[in-house]
Design goal:
It is built from six helices and no strands. It is an all-alpha fold. The N and C termini lie far apart (29 Å).
Length: 85
């Protein structure tokens, strides 16, 4: 549902939905990834980075997460950090 709301442009509703899902299962990296992506889309880059980092703490070998987080760092001109991802 969070992805559907995100894809529909209902970002604030999507954040609320995904956050509730995270309360139910705080070890689901997908919820952090989706919320991070929503934050990225609305320009909340620091929050996006925090969510991507949390997702990677749970699932450190997820190539999508690694790639998405690296691109976020590049977008925000944190090139040295992106090289470490």
């Amino acid at each position: 549902m969070g992805k559907f709301l995100r894809d529909s442009g209902l970002y604030l509703q999507a954040i609320k939905f995904v956050t509730k899902a995270m309360d139910l299962d705080p070890l689901d990296p997908n919820s952090y990834a989706v919320r991070g992506d929503i934050h990225r889309l609305i320009g909340n880059y620091d929050r996006a980075a925090t969510d991507f980092q949390k997702a990677l703490e749970i699932e450190s070998n997820d190539l999508y997460l690694l790639n998405t987080f690296a691109w976020l760092l590049i977008m925000t001109k944190k090139h040295a950090e992106a090289e470490q991802v």
